[in-house]
Structure formats: C-alpha cells, structure tokens
C-alpha cells in the first residue's frame, strides 16, 4: 500500500491507509515513523479510531533511531516489533540488524546490531587488528553481499574494496567509525 503523490509527505494519509488496509509492515527511515507517531499522538486515534494497531513490524534504516521511537510506536501499535537495519549499498544495502526490544536507559544510541547471514562486520584499527570492546575503529563489511566494485571507476573501487593484508578476505571500507559492545553488537 502506497500513498498518492499528494499524500506521500502527509502522515494523516499514511495513518488512514494503514487503518483502511490493515497494513502490517512499515519500512522507512526513522524520521518518517517519527512523523507518523507524532500525528498519531496528536490526532490519529481520535480521528481514525483503531488506526495503526495492525502494524506488526517496523523496519527502520538509513539514519539514527531516536531512543524513544521504539516505545512510541508500540504505544500506538502494541504488537509491533521494531528492527534496526543497516549497511551500505556496496554490501547489498542491509548487512546488519538489531531487534529493538527494550531500550536500556544507559544507552546513548540504539546499537548498530549483528551481521545478517553470510555477512561479516569488522571494527579494525590502523594495524588491521580487531579492536577491543568499546575501542573505536574503522568499520568494514565482508561477505556474500559485497559488490564487485564501482562501475567503470577503478580508482574508487581500489580505495573502497580492499583485501585484508593478513587474511586476504575482501572487505568494503565503509568510512564509518564503530566500536564493539560487550554483547557483540
């Protein structure tokens, strides 16, 4: 179910469509779900009754997820599971996922997650060694989803798709900084 061109930026139309078609899956950047939640809190339930209670899964990717968003959508759709997805276009877009169950009050952000099947993530220091827990390093993606490179751009391909000097494994250098948590996420 997709909104009309006029309604693609209108959370009231999204809300109405979810209610009318009993939509069960939401897939967007977090900011759009924030807009839906904000609308729902202000007018959605009063204006549309049951509203978004049919939602069973919210898949969020492409940006930072606010710490309050998972519980906010669950307050409007109590059975809704929330999953954070991440990765790079160069590695099949989604390489990592994190089911957001309870948000720890000590968190400053939602954990990035664990690699999906046939994908691997490495946080490496400048000496190509795995970083210890909480130490910041460069994030690399490996696995079956890795692209061959950039179309007709050998220079960019060579800079971004590298071989680990010790293992020989082909890696994609994301350009992002990351760190391992004690739970591996």
Automatic annotation (TrEMBL):
Source organism superkingdom: Bacteria
Protein name: AMP-binding protein
UniProt keyword Ligase, yes or no: yes
Organism: Xanthomonas hortorum pv. hederae
Matching InterPro entries: AMP-dep_synth/lig_dom
Every AMP-dependent synthetase/ligase domain range: 2-151
Pfam family, one: AMP-binding
Keywords of the record: Ligase
Transmembrane segments: none
Alphabetical list of SUPFAM superfamilies matching this protein: Acetyl-CoA synthetase-like (SSF56801)
PANTHER family: NONRIBOSOMAL PEPTIDE SYNTHETASE, PYOCHELIN SYNTHASE PCHF
A GO CC annotation given for this chain: cytoplasm
Recorded GO MF terms: ligase activity; phosphopantetheine binding
């Amino acid at each position: 179910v997709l909104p009309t061109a006029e309604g693609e930026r209108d959370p009231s139309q999204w809300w109405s469509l979810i209610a009318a078609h009993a939509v069960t899956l939401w897939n967007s950047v977090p900011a759009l779900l924030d807009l839906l939640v904000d609308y729902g809190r202000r007018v959605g339930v009063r204006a549309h009754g049951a509203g978004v209670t049919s939602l069973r899964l919210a898949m969020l990717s492409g940006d930072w997820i606010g710490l309050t968003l998972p519980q906010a959508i669950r307050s409007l759709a109590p059975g809704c599971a929330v999953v954070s997805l991440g990765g790079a276009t160069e590695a099949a877009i989604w390489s990592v996922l994190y089911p957001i169950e309870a948000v720890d009050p000590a968190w400053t952000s939602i954990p990035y997650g664990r690699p999906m099947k046939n994908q691997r993530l490495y946080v490496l220091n400048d000496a190509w060694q795995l970083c210890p827990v909480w130490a910041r390093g460069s994030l690399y993606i490996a696995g079956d989803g890795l692209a061959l490179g950039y179309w007709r751009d050998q220079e960019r391909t060579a800079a971004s798709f590298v071989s680990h000097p010790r293992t020989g494994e082909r890696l994609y250098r994301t350009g992002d900084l990351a760190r391992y948590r004690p739970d591996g996420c």
